[in-house]
Amino acid sequence: MKDWFNKGEHWIWISSAMVSISVVLVVGLMAMITYKGAVHFWPHAVYEFQVNQNGQSEKVIGELRDEKVREVTNPKTGKEEELTQYLIKVGNRDVYGIDFRWINGDVISSPLENLSKDILVIERFEYGNVFGHIVGASIAGTQVPDKKRLLNLLKEQVKHSTETHAKIKHIEKVLIGGINYKIEQLRFEEKKLRKHGAFTAEEEARIAAERAELQSEFVGYQAETEVLYKKLDSFGEITVEISNGQTLTVPVKNIVNFWRPNNMDFMDKVAFFGHSIGNFLFDDPREANTEGGIFPAMIGTITMVLLMTILVTPMGVIAAVYMREYAKDGPMLRMVRISINNLAGVPSIVFGIFGLGFFVYILGGSIDELFYDYALPSPTFGTPGLLWAALTMALLTLPVVIVSTEEGLSRIPRSLREGGLALGATKSETIMKIVLPMATPAIMTGLILAIARAAGEVAPLMLVGVVKLAPELPVDAIAPFVHLDRKFMHLGFHIYDVGFQSPNVEASQPLVYATSLLLVIIIVGLNIGAISIRNRLREKYKALE
């Protein structure tokens, strides 16, 4: 045993145990997020049971989301007894004000296993889901008593309603949004010409003609949307009997989707699962981000991370090349290296404050005074936006890229540098054509770590560009296509907002897990791409190492 300790093998076993525990914890965490996130899209069974409480009886319809057992004191016997409580998602927020309610098991008179095959779940644009039985309907102004035919007609009407909503969204956000953007640019152009004394009669006539043409297009699109909104009112409505025998009328135009989960077989549930994931990925958020999709947040996250990668790579590589290849070793260089290492441990919120103070107010304000003075006092770059968020994240991850690149440069044999110089190449040519290409695997390693950290940061982004709900995407079809001055949504902030700022936390909990899973998938996807590039480069230069 003494020899075993003297050889240091116990440290090997301890290290292996710690690595194993870490792997198990990571895998367990990922499994929990995956399960909780995937369950959000799977159709849940809807229960209908009687509740007898305080001498009153009521019918409750909803999804069973959770149950717990707690110890209570029986008032008759005075003994401790176990009481099961059920968390039921009753929906119908416009009727009850809440989505969930806890019900004690001792007041439920009917078994929970009873599933009614006729219960309908309706997803609406607002006020949450509706759970109940159809008791009447007016489809396109016609009363439909046959329930089977009614469901088929309702499916067609919801499809037409969804298509109409999509047309309205396209007109309002893309076509009218583009016109508003052009009108705003004309206004800025006019202010710029007036400020510089170049607003001639010809320019005034040109701008007025362009503005009149755009206004004419705007009026046409507005009239088109009015027709579409009137068309939505013609799709009809259905009446549903919800909990406690109450009835609720739901216009078809407010329905996103409907299904009967208790009637579905396995393949129907799989199809519903895929459809729900598609809606989650490509729809806009609704109801203060607690429902709907996360498309704007997904686009904002990917755009910011890619822009951050473009900005941090040259800064980190140039700094590492200078310190390794050009700077003389001495107290100053050692101090710089210590500062870089310490910079990696600075809290991220400090970078956010620095980005807000330096990038937004000083640098952005200066850019506005120099190039966008005609737009003042409305700031263009002197306000949080995509560019400043990417630059702040670039500074946050810069130490990782510098250290990784410098380590890669230190592993390049000195003989390769001397060989390049001996063949007549300059030092810069040797570095650019021999040293840097061989160090690219290390550079990619630094970028992988930078991407992983930047994609998950929240605190600094709240100060330099991320918002709860952005009216426009940072990337669109309007030139210059990537709008660096726009605010954007981010998956990390979306998780924080939905999970901790939502007034209905229990209803938004599944969405938190689903968004977390998507964020992890995006980070893993970006990292896999970077790792594949690194491995190819490593194989390419393997023979020279």
TrEMBL record:
Keywords: Cell membrane, Membrane, Transmembrane, Transmembrane helix, Transport. The chain crosses the membrane at residues 12-35, 294-322, 343-365, 385-405, 434-455, 511-533. InterPro entries: MetI-like, MetI-like_sf, Phosphate_PstA. It comes from the Bacteria. The keyword Transmembrane helix applies. It is found in: Cell inner membrane; Cell membrane. Residues 298-530 form the ABC transmembrane type-1 domain. It is a multi-pass membrane protein. SUPFAM superfamilies: MetI-like (SSF161098). Pfam families: BPD_transp_1. NCBIfam families: 3a0107s02c (TIGR00974). Belongs to the binding-protein-dependent transport system permease family. CysTW subfamily. This is Phosphate transport system permease protein PstA. The gene is pstA.
